[in-house]
Amino acid sequence: xxxxxxxxxxxxxxxxxxxxxxxxxxxxxxxxxxxxxxxxxxxxxxxxxxxxxxxxxxxxxxxxxxxxxxxxxxxxxxxxxxxxxxxxxxxxxxxxxxxxxxxxxxxxxxxxxxxxxxxxxxxxxxxxxxxxxxxxxxxxxxxxxx
Length: 146
Prior knowledge:
The chain is of the alpha/beta class. The protein contains four helices and seven strands. A hairpin with a 5-residue loop joins strand 3 (70-75) and strand 4 (81-87). The radius of gyration is 15 Å and the shape is globular.
């Protein structure tokens, strides 16, 4: 019997995560506060937090996605590259390439490292594979995004 590649099976093969304690505390509070608005997204964030390795801020690898860092990733379905900065919901502004951590892509990216390939579901329920190409502390406008 062939193993199914349904979105739920794809989501099980998840890369390792690393978060600093401060981001963990902020994200946990956001998930708790957002539970009544979007329980599915909040549960997804709780799942990610539960599997993350927590490290002191000064030990967080420079190539790990965290709040305020800029990440370039490629959608393996379309080949399109995007560069965004992961921010708190109140700082989100897609025209400035600032994406809220409380969005499906934000939850998928948090804690990942360069080279990680991850599977996630879009708001429409479509399964996608994305690859983290680079992580920096710079502004996304300083880089070109395809």
